[in-house]
Each structure stands twice: as C-alpha cells, then as structure tokens.
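Re-run requested by the PI after the first attempt was lost when the workstation crashed. Everything re-entered from the original request form. Ligand of interest: acetyl coenzyme *A.
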Amino acid sequence: MTIRALATYVPPRLLTNADLEKLVDTTDEWILQRTGIRERHVVDPGVATSDLGKEAALAAIGRAGLTPADIGFLVVGTVTPDMMFPSTACLLQHKIGAHHAWGFDLSAACSAFTYALTTGTQMVACGAHDYALVVGADVMSSIIDYQDRSTCVLFGDGAGAVVLAPAGPDDGAILDFEHEIDGSGGPALCMPAGGSLRPPSHETVEQRLHYVKQDGQTVFKFAVRKTEEISRRLLERNHLTPDDLSLFVSHQANRRIIQSATERLAIDPAKVIINIERFGNTTAATIPLALNDAIAAGRLKKGDLVLLASVGAGFTVGAVLIRWGY
Ligand code: ACO
C-alpha cells in the first residue's frame, strides 16, 4: 500500500505572537527563541475539527482521482473531537459523503497521525479495503487556556489527510513502523476534566481543568530522547542509517526539540522539515502539514525514503518509514 495523495487545510484566521502579547505576559522574542513559532491559525467560533478535516479530506480524495464513495475505511486522529460522541469519523463520513466507509477516531495526541497512518495501512494491506482515508485534525484552540502563557503560545489548529491505496511495483510503499506508549507520562500532559474521572461541573470550570495542562520540561526531555530512540530503532531494523534518508519529518512541537533530536541522530539539517514557525503545534496535523510543505518546495519526490517521527501526550511515541510514491 502507498500514499496516493495528501492534502491539508488550516483556517484562515491568524493568531500572531503580537496578538498573544496582548493576552498574556509574553514577548514575540521569547516565543520565537524558545519555540520557533511566529504565528498559528485558529478557527472562528462554530468551526469544528470535522470542518477542518472535511476540507483536507475532500482535497486529498480529489487529488487521488477518487470520489468519497470509493473510500472503504476512514480513521480520524484527534484529541479535539467535535463532541464526546458520535465520533468525528462518523461526522466526517457524513459531511464528505463517504457512504461506503466505516471508521473511528483514534486518540494518540501528537502521535495520532503516525498511529492513524499505521492503522489505515493495515486495513489496505490485509485486503479488506482498496482505499483508506487517514485524517489528522485538531482544533487545539478549543482546549487552550489563553490565560496560561506556558501553553497558549504553543498550539494552533489544522488538518491533514492522506488517501491510501494498494501499491503497484512503482508506487512507493509504507515500509515499516515502530510505536510505543508509556502511560507513566500521563500527568505530564493532559486535559484533566471532561471525561468520566472528572465530569464537567462548576468546580472543574472554575479551576480551569478543561484546558491543556503541561509540565513543559518533562515533555521536552522525553520528546528529544524518544524521537531519537524510536527513529534509530526503526532505521536499524531496516538496515538503514540516517544517511539513507531523503527526508526526516518530525512532529512539530518545538523547533528546539526537532533540532536536538536530529543533531543526536546526525541527520543533515537539509533533510529536516521545520515549519512550526507558521503553524505552531497543530497536534495530529503537524506531520501532514510538514509533508505538504515539503512537496510544495520540491523537497519530496517519488522514490524518496522518508522517516516520520512523533512524540505526544500519553506518552505516545511513533515512527513510520515510507518510500514516497508520487
Ligand atoms: N513567555 C514568557 N515567559 C514564559 C512563557 C512565555 N510564553 N512561558 C513560560 N515562560 C517563563 C516561565 O514562567 C519561566 O519563568 P521563571 O524562570 O521565572 O519561572 C521561564 O519562562 C522558563 O520556563 P521553562 O518552562 O523552563 O521554559 P522552557 O525553556 O522549558 O520552555 C516550553 C517552555 C516552550 C513549554 C518547553 O518546555 C517546551 O516546548 N516543551 C515541550 C512541550 C510541547 O511542545 N508539548 C506539546 C505537546 S507534546 C509534544 O508535542 C511532544
């Protein structure tokens, strides 16, 4: 199986560092230096994750030369579903008219795209479906506390989608994956209330528990260590070295995380995509947004060997090795 097409979508409204300077005690200089972010896109009220996913999904299906009715399976990676249930996959299926598809949401935070890509790949590889739609979409602005300077500067909204199809001999392939989770890291990055443990109440709202809470330094160190570790393990299993890669596409959480991890891996910076400056951390959408930029810049071509890597809340860790197919 191979990626037949990719498309992304971000809402038009920009939230710049200058805008954030008016909301919290921060500066453009601090944000840029500590994170690499200049601006992020955020939705207008009433726009949900399925709306962003719809734009990306329809564009990807069109680019694949298909119609929504051709999709047999769809998976939506997100931590910001439109609502607790029904799943955003169901809402998206209806919005795009994928009448023959079944599917579900996948919760793996910033690793959602690598996990969803792996899940979709298995559905095509086992022969159950010809075409699978993999969507990574998040409206992080819906769960960000714009009074908390340590988190509100980091995140943005966006969506990405790929269409997976059976591969012919010249089509590229999803070659291998390596994933792990470490639940001991849960408290370091979470949204404490709104689930079965702490259902919404006046207290949970007053205590601002429906927002992202993060121990930034713990997450930072884990992300650097694990991005290196999982990438190395996947390459070694495939008898490859970083030099064999054409492109390394990491989850975009912080420019310094990507730079530290790729330095440890000794990957040539010319092979590393960093576009966090324009989008911030869009959680499930960062990797497709980075791939899209790579394609647009002519940095990703048919036959290229690409390594995706992600670390996210959970903790979740993932890597996928791809021979690019178009
Ligand atoms: N503006 C100005 N000052 C700030 C801001 C801000 N926006 N945020 C924090 N500070 C202050 C802190 O209050 C602290 O001040 P103090 O020394 O007076 O207490 C000082 O800056 C240093 O804070 P640190 O937390 O040590 O700063 P650090 O260099 O670790 O950067 C950051 C913080 C950017 C959050 C970093 O830890 C990080 O990126 N962590 C990774 C988190 C992440 O991206 N998670 C996303 C999801 S998971 C994932 O994708 C891997």
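Saved to the shared folder this time. Residues 173-323 form a domain with the Peroxisomal Thiolase; Chain A, domain 1 fold (CATH 3.40.47.10).
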